[in-house]
Design a protein that fits this description.
Number of helices: 6
Shape: globular
Radius of gyration: 17 Å
Structural class: alpha/beta
Order of helices and strands: HHEHEHEEHEEEHEE
Number of strands: 9
Strand order of the largest sheet: 3-2-1-4-5-9-8
Helix content: 25-40%
Strand content: 25-35%
């Protein structure tokens, strides 16, 4: 079983019971700003899940081309039932995106569930698919995350397989880009399930990274 096939099983289970339709603010705001300047732009979301971000963007920008991929067929099936006019596909070990075709890329908390070598391959492929000067937004768990001590590939109590990045690794990961801004985002009151029946605080920290393709 490949890494993406294994991940698909996990996330199919998640999306089978997920009814989340609210967009994730920071990623969507980034795309809205870009599409406000180019209303017919091409947006790609890596790890789109059930496409709540792209569905929201479709309601605002009917002329935009909106593309999304995810390992979860269940998530994509839910997106197709709810939204029209999206180009959605299941990604495997490659993405098969057309070179120099994307104006905007967004990703929110998806790459951190991918083994680092495969994550680097995805980012390199995404970079090749972006037009020079195109912008990207990524949000990735960092080494101050409350469960980073589990190490790469650890099973955190909420989302399973997770890897964590340092600032130095971020620079390497996005070597094909100009890094415009990096913010550290923290949430400290997210509750995690506990087999013992209690609900410990789930400390989460991530980098929000704003990029321009060279």
């Amino acid at each position: 079983m490949s890494e993406t096939e294994a991940a698909a099983r996990t996330w199919d289970g998640y999306y089978a019971g997920s009814f989340t339709h609210a967009p994730y603010t920071d990623a969507v705001v980034f795309a809205i700003k870009a599409l406000s300047r180019n209303r017919a732009g091409v947006v790609y979301e890596f790890g789109c899940g059930n496409a709540q971000n792209l569905g929201f963007l479709r309601s605002l920008f009917p002329d935009a081309r909106l593309i999304g991929s995810d390992v979860s067929e269940a998530g994509l099936a839910a997106a197709r039932r709810r939204y029209e006019g999206l180009e959605l596909f299941a990604n495997g070990e490659t993405l098969a995106l057309a070179p120099a075709s994307l104006d905007v890329v967004i990703e929110r908390a998806a790459l951190q569930h991918v083994p680092k070598p495969l994550g680097q391959a995805y980012v390199d492929e995404i970079a090749e698919a972006m037009k020079p000067g195109a912008g990207a937004f990524f949000e990735i768990a960092n080494t101050d995350h409350g469960h980073a001590a589990l190490g790469d590939g650890g099973q955190d109590p909420v989302f399973g397989y997770r890897v964590f990045y340092s600032l130095g690794e971020i620079e390497t990961l996005f070597a094909a880009f100009d890094i415009d801004q990096v913010f550290e985002r923290r949430r400290t009151l997210v509750r995690a399930p506990d087999p013992a029946g209690s609900a410990p605080v789930y400390n989460e920290a991530c980098f929000q990274i704003y990029l321009t393709r060279r």
